[in-house]
Design brief:
The protein has 94 residues and is an all-alpha fold. The protein is built from 5 helices and no strands. The longest helix has 28 residues.
C-alpha cells in the first residue's frame, strides 16, 4: 500500500479545515461527538453529519486512487479489493 500511503496526506489536504478538525478529534483523538459539539457550540447530530460527509469524501478519493492503480495493472491487496467492491456496491444504490 506504499503508493496509497503517499497519496493519503494529499487526500486529507483537500478536506476543508472544518472536516479535518472533526475527523482528527473524533477518529484520531477518539473524542465523542457530544464533547466536540459542546466545544464547538454545535449539536451532536451536526458533528455526526459533518463527520459522515468528510468520511464519504475520503472514501470517494480512495476509490479513485484504487481504481487508477487497478487500471494501471498495480496489484491490490485483498482489503483494497473488498473496499472497492463495497464502495462500488454502495454507489449502485445511490
Amino acid at each position: 500500500m506504499g503508493r496509497l500511503n503517499q497519496r493519503f496526506p494529499k487526500i486529507l489536504d483537500k478536506l476543508s479545515d472544518d472536516h479535518k478538525e472533526i475527523i482528527f478529534n473524533t477518529i484520531v483523538r477518539n473524542m465523542s461527538t457530544k464533547a466536540l459539539g459542546d466545544i464547538r457550540g454545535q449539536t451532536d447530530r451536526n458533528i455526526r453529519k459533518v463527520r459522515a460527509t468528510a468520511v464519504k469524501k475520503i472514501h470517494k478519493a480512495l476509490l479513485r486512487v484504487l481504481q487508477s492503480r487497478e487500471e494501471n495493472g498495480i496489484p491490490l491487496t485483498p482489503n483494497e479489493k473488498e473496499f472497492m467492491k463495497n464502495a462500488l456496491d454502495d454507489n449502485k444504490g445511490s
